[in-house]
Design goal:
CATH architecture: 3-Layer(aba) Sandwich
Distance between the termini: 42 Å
Number of domains: 1
Mean pLDDT: 93
Oligomer: single chain
Helix content: 40-55%
Length: 211
């Protein structure tokens, strides 16, 4: 047993907000798509932390945020209806542009690709980001966080949708119950692709009896 398996997984509160932003910022610091968006290492932390703070704040209010231990890892997401409200939220878009500065062009381009291919039905939960501090990566914390979300959505009989940032991550997601769906989504002016994945709803015994 490693120390990571003993870390408590729990629902985050507003008091954990800065830790969540830090975990996502550091956890994605070597991610190819994130490095494509924030392509200046000298200003990475300034703009990437602003980017992740926008989504963390929204998910704390309208979705879910789970953390591991003293926020060494975090996962954030939201239900479909919250995502659709976000896509037309002018104030959020203005805040995102301000926080991302010169990198907003690529953020906006990626968001457009994702919005155009995001399924409209059935109703589902959307996993936005799962990030782990580099010091705690490859210890299974990401999977433990996602399983905490499974517990949440299984109570509601909801499926889950996400986009994996590369083929390796997509394979990791398939090990915990997701399947690749559709086709990879190319990002403009790059050779990078997003890989849509889906986890079907787990119908409870009580629900099946009721039907």
């Amino acid at each position: 047993m490693n120390a990571a398996t003993e870390l408590v997984i729990r629902r985050a509160t507003q008091a954990d907000r800065d830790g969540v932003v830090a975990a996502l910022t550091e956890g994605f610091s070597a991610d190819p798509i994130n490095c494509w968006i924030f392509d200046n290492p000298a200003t990475y932390h300034r703009y990437a932390s602003g980017y992740f703070s926008c989504y963390t704040d929204y998910c704390l209010k309208h979705g879910y945020v789970f953390i591991a231990g003293d926020v060494v890892a975090a996962t954030i997401g939201m239900p479909l209806d919250a995502l659709r409200r976000l896509e037309s939220d002018i104030e959020f878009d203005a805040k995102l542009e301000k926080m991302c500065g010169p990198h907003f062009v690529r953020v906006s381009a990626m968001n457009q690709v994702m919005a155009e291919h995001h399924p409209n039905s059935p109703n589902h939960m959307y996993s936005v980001f799962t990030g782990v501090m580099p010091s705690h990566q490859n210890l299974g914390l990401g999977a433990r966080l996602v399983h905490a979300v499974f517990d949440l959505i299984d109570e509601q009989n909801l499926p889950m949708y996400a986009e994996a940032g590369n083929e390796n991550n997509a394979r990791l997601w398939t090990r915990i119950g997701f399947s690749l769906v559709g086709h990879p989504l190319p990002l403009p002016d790059s050779d990078l692709m997003l890989h849509p994945i889906w986890r079907p709803a787990k119908v409870s015994v009580e629900s099946a009896i009721a039907q």
